[in-house]
Amino acid sequence: MTVRENTISILVNNKPDVLARIAGTFSGRGFNIESISANITRNPEITNIIITTIGDQETVIKLEKQLNKLVDVLEVRDLTDVSSAQREMILVRVKVIASDRDRFTQIVDTHSWKIVSTDADYCILEVTGDRQGIEDALAILETIGMEDFVRTGVVALKRCPPQQIG
User: Is the same domain home to 8 and 68?
Assistant: First the structure.
């Protein structure tokens, strides 16, 4: 079987210890959580947890079955092969030398990155995109003075079937 990155969406009751039980299920199966994002849905009593992990399809299916057995888990969906929008965000602190400011601004504009804050020597950028876009941005930013960054987990939303749009 092919080992690859998998994106799993888990709808749960918004209660204490649910995330800990989910993390325990992953570690108990020998899975590492590559990224995690969790927040309430339109209904504040329900949380959507998006987890990416590396594994083969057979093992991910077993993991889904274990997750579905947990108290307070309402739904588990593997979004890996489903048509979905998946994005990440990074905030990046870059040292900007006055003599390079024009080149820096051109790079930011070319890639449609957003300047969140700036001062005389530093700039904080917001970059959003798919996993490969984030990796590409980090490679570019490394060459122009990136000092630090923080990265969100993947957020994903299943696309609606065509008959449900409109």
Answer: yes
